[in-house]
Amino acid sequence: MNEVKVAAAGVLDDPAMTDGMIEAVVAHEMGHWADPESAASIKRSVIVTYSCISLGVLVAIGIAVGTGVVDNNTLMLMFLAVGAGYGCSIALSPFLHWKDEYFADRFAAESTSPDTVVSLMKHFRAQESRFAPLFTFANHPSRTRRIRRIELDSITDSEQQTATGDRGRPLPPQ
């Protein structure tokens, strides 16, 4: 069964959300489905993320075993090793996730309208602390970046439509 899930509670029942914005949220989530690279991207992300975190844990275990003593200094080094592994996974996140988010945004803009998706992003940007937990910042480009990308895509699309006409063929020279 196909499902569309919205991770943050209270998003769709927010009275400030218009019907168009709700459609844009659903279209964005459907865009993740429609992305032909999505499955491979998720697998890559899981492998890289867990590898980084696992390396941090292994280093922490190595510190504990190597020192033979678990005191406050050792615990701090272990904590730093695990934190470094997690930090590595976060640092690599833009390379693993952002392309998927841009694809889903573009899908939503084509399914609804670029203006609707931009208004949704502006609404979320205004509500950032409510709808964007810490992990969202690593997995998603900033709302400002996403707005710029949608606006650039819509300008590019309109220029291409002008150059090719309604049927996708180049217009004859004038």
UniProtKB/TrEMBL annotation:
Q: Give start-end of the signal peptide.
A: none
Segment Disordered: which positions? 154-174
What are the Polar residues biased-composition ranges? 155-164
- Segments spanning the bilayer are 47-69, 75-96
Q: Does the keyword Metal-binding apply?
A: yes
> What are the protein's UniProt keywords?
Hydrolase, Membrane, Metal-binding, Metalloprotease, Plasmid, Protease, Transmembrane, Transmembrane helix, Zinc
Q: Name one GO biological process term.
A: proteolysis
Q: Which Pfam families match?
A: Peptidase_M48
Name the Enzyme Commission number(s) assigned to this protein.
3.4.24.-
Q: Does the keyword Zinc apply?
A: yes
What is the name listed in the Swiss-Prot or TrEMBL entry for this protein?
M48 family metalloprotease
Species per Swiss-Prot/TrEMBL record: Rhodococcus erythropolis (Arthrobacter picolinophilus)
